[in-house]
Amino acid sequence: MPRLRIVQTSDVHLRPDRPERRRALELVFAQAAARAADVVLIAGDLFDRAIDAQAERAAVRKMVEELAPRPVIFVPGNADQDAYAASADFGANALVLAKAPYTRARIAGLELVGVPWQAGRSLAECLTAVACEPRHTVLVAHGSLVDAAGTAFAGEGEDGAFMPIFAQDLTRRFSYAALGHLHAGDGLVRREDQRLVAYAGSPVATSSRELGPRSVLVVDFEPGVGVLAHEVVPLPTPSYDLVHVVCMPGMELEAIERLAKEAAARKASGVRVIARLTGATTEPADALRAIAERELQRAFATPAAIAAEAGASDQTPTAVLELSVASHPQLAQIAVVSEFVARLVAAAKCGNVEDPRTLETALRIGLGSFVEALP
Q: In this structure, is the dihedral angle defined by the CA atoms of residues 61, 62, 67 and 69, taken in order, positive or negative?
């Protein structure tokens, strides 16, 4: 049987007041056309809410129909589970797999099983008694792969929207599981020979907790064989990056300079850098914030001509300061405090403590104890 090229995405969370999300979906469809995809899979949460589907459906239908005759497959997620009424028109080449507990379909030579998000159920419960030939069948589902939950982010306000998926329920039934619900994080794509379990992630950052460049997943699948190849294709859509520096008493200016320098090194089109300064200080917090904001502003200053050309574009690199420093100005003139900090830093270096959170925790506890001991 012929090789099929599949483009996978999910978690776009379309809504009228977030035009960058519609632009991201347009880029996904553009990749499908440019790479001669045979099928597009949208594994849930295309819309932010059912009410947003009413406003965005016409635009989605236009994109889908422009991709015809390629089929576009939709599976509802927890956010848009009520957006797929039988009367909703997504285009003649659209196929909605919304029936619970699952829907089976054959399209473009592909055997599909679609599992929409279902409250209080696991994927295993939804697939009870389902028999599949793994090398011929692709799963499209919206839920949380259990062993990925600690390293991935599912979107703001979705902590309770949990439909557990266990890896063993996938590998014995499917060669390719196209999943939605996890927006970003580590371990979203897992490949073993001709088997693939994958989240595409959100094609545009919908939260500052979604770190890293956004992408779409392209998969080559051959019925009877399984997954032949896969590629994570970057998208030029708005994203977030993180720079984290720990501040120490007496070394505040060095920490701020390092924060600004590292943040500036991450400057790129469409990237919003989160400059996070934590730790402890004996300086007033307001003074520290003012210095940090000034240094970041200098680091991200844009020449007037470039700024005028970019206007209010969401592609202009920016930085936002997150300041969470424990401020104890009452300790500023106490010599033993400076000695404590110096010894703590030296001990960390001797012990090869590489995680700044370990040093930060010790610092906060130690300075807190000094504050409590003050008369």
A: positive
